[in-house]
Amino acid sequence: MSGPVSRPDPVTVLLVDDEAPILRALKRTLGDLPAELITAGDGAQALAVLRTRRVDVMVADIDMPQLDGLELVRAARRESPLTYRILMTGAATMDRTIRAINDGEVVRFFTKPLEPAAFHEEMKTLVERVLRQRREGGQETRKARREALYGWLAERFAGAERIERAPDGGIELDLGRVRQALAGAGVAARRVIGA
Q1: Any idea what DSSP says for residue 5?
Q2: What one-character DSSP code corresponds to residue 10?
Q3: Would you say 164 and 172 are in contact if contact means Cβ atoms under 8 Å apart?
Q4: How far apart are CA 143 and CA 131, in angstroms?
Q5: CA separation for the pair 9, 131 (Å, rounded)
Q6: Burial group, residue 107, by CB count within 10 angstroms (0-12, 13-18, 19+)
Q7: Banded model confidence at residue 2, pLDDT cuts 50, 70, 90
Q8: Is the Cβ–Cβ distance between 14 and 107 less than 8 Å?
Q9: Residue 112 backbone phi and psi in degrees, to 5
């Protein structure tokens, strides 16, 4: 009997612009990506989202009232440092671009009006990067846990860490060797082996 299959969380993309038609256009452009698209109408709403859930990629307009995009990416860098940050603007200047890169560690900078195909391709690449990092990070985490377990076994119960894989992929243990290694290990270990 098997339990429910766990599905990975979708990549989350937060789109931030104070113009509703722009947000709708961005959602249409990115609608086929394997990602959950969330929108925010201003920087304050975007920060509230960043504080309450994981966001993998944030795309924000620079020119917004109150909390502009530059202030937002600076705050996002503190609040959600693992989020990829992207800015869009209709008035790109070298000064703004440099400030965005230096202060907010922005990974991409787009000028409006956006070229939909190029924007889509860049976003697809970022979504794939997030998914790849999750896969690799998960594998690294499992490997580190396995190595820590083997180290713990070797330190406390010499010989018990000898685990081999059967041809069908199952784990084979020499129970006699494990019992022998655990026999002198104390009361807790004797409970494990039933001695």
Answers
A1: P
A2: P
A3: yes
A4: 18
A5: 10
A6: middle
A7: very low
A8: no
A9: -90, 150
